[in-house]
Amino acid sequence: MEHLMEVHMILDRVIHQGMKKAVNITAKFRGDDGFHDRLLSYLNENLPFQIVRLTPLRRNVFIVRLSDGFQFVLKGYSSLRRLKIQEVFTQSLKKEGFPYTYSFYSFPKEHCLYFESQYFGFLEFLKRGEQPFFYDSKNNCQEGIQLLQRFHTVSEKLVGRYKTILPSFHLIDKWEERYRLFEQNISLISFFLQKEVIQDLLAWAEWSITGLKQEKNSLYAFPNVILHGDVAHHNFFRTSNGELLLIDFDLISIGPVISDYLQYANRILPFLNWSLQELTSFEQFRPYFNHHVFLYALVYPTDIFREWNRLVKEKSYNDNRKLRTVMELTLRQFEKRKDFYKEIEARINGGN
Fold first, then answer.
1. Does the pLDDT value for residue 159 go beyond 60?
2. Which whole number is the average pLDDT over 78-93?
3. How many CB atoms are closer than 10 A to CB 32?
4. At the top level of its lineage, which domain of life is listed (predicted)?
5. Of all helices (H) and strands (E), which one includes residue 243?
6. Are residues 99 and 192 in the same domain?
């Protein structure tokens, strides 16, 4: 209870102070042209140090270089609450024994940077190693899941403090919604995918969701942790000294620990050529294979649904590069994935 009150007090204080001192220049700079230059000008006007370079990494994320050579990362958030939750959560992780991530800087204390509907925070700059992290080797897959396991060991201790701050994660609800959206988009998707492929995808999803509902009690019997929520390879960061870090906690929520492992399995299975035997070789997955809920969930084509739904939402199907990427994701290992699903079904029906 004491820890929970502490987190609430920190959030309330920093949000209250930040809202009072935020500098909103949305009206001053309208439109999207010259965003980079406007942001640089704004930062130099409102920070107590001189910025000599502002390098974009991705949308609303920049590397900032000061005149003395010091660098940090500037990242925008859609609300002050989101920013402060990230600051406090990463601080909590390190305090409880998980040092494998970045830190937020607290400067400048006298301002809350608010630029064109984004609240900006200051993150530690990490020098990337020569060998970026990808799910392209079994050693990397193993190292990633070991780090994720360490994260869960610590994040489980933080559930009580954050249970009224973070949303709850409901796997079945999310996947049903993703399934419905894919169904709604079929009229467009059918221009690119054969009817038989779409039918297989829908059949796999229906079978998976039906099984998950039957095993719902088993799903929620697993310990609750703070889930990372996005265990894509780019959220594992290999530093210049070879250390692996876990970054970007924008999608954290509270839910059964199995949820992150399911997502991790889905991310590495393409590298494993959709081999059930290879997946069971990872020690961290073995206990879950004793539960039908894990097997049912492995069959759900969450990656394919996610990417097609995004493609339709963003109307990126006219972008040949993006369309080719989603088509390759869907079709390149389709037959191997089909065999994998048949093996899962046989394992469930055989009671093994």
1. yes
2. 96
3. 8
4. Bacteria
5. none
6. no
